[in-house]
Design a protein that fits this description.
The protein has 98 residues and is an alpha+beta fold. The protein has one domain. It has three helices and three strands; from the N terminus they run H-E-H-H-E-E. The chain has helices at 6-21, 41-46, 50-59; strands at residues 27-35, 72-86, 89-97. A three-stranded mixed sheet has the order 1-2-3, with helices on one face. A hairpin with a 2-residue loop joins strand 2 (72-86) and strand 3. The radius of gyration is 15 Å and the shape is elongated. The termini are far apart.
Amino acid sequence: MGDIPYFPTMRTILTLVLSLALSYAQFGKVDVSVDDRLLHDTERQEISSLKDEVARFFSGRIWHGDFQGLKIPLHISIAFQGVAQRGGLKTFHAQILI
């Protein structure tokens, strides 16, 4: 279990949850805000690219051809509340508002 990279797994799960919730929309401007004040510096470093990756994920996709070009503004707020580490697995606790 210690050999499994924890951050790519968390990123994949987060992407899956967000994509399932918003799978039939076409987005224009994607605004992502990340509140990481409760995290330590090393944990902030691990999530430093998350904001850009989430924005790129939603702005670069056509979810359904019939709804192409709607340019719906999307605002996503991610508030990290802490990190739990058990063995070799690190879990980030966060609230996500869409």
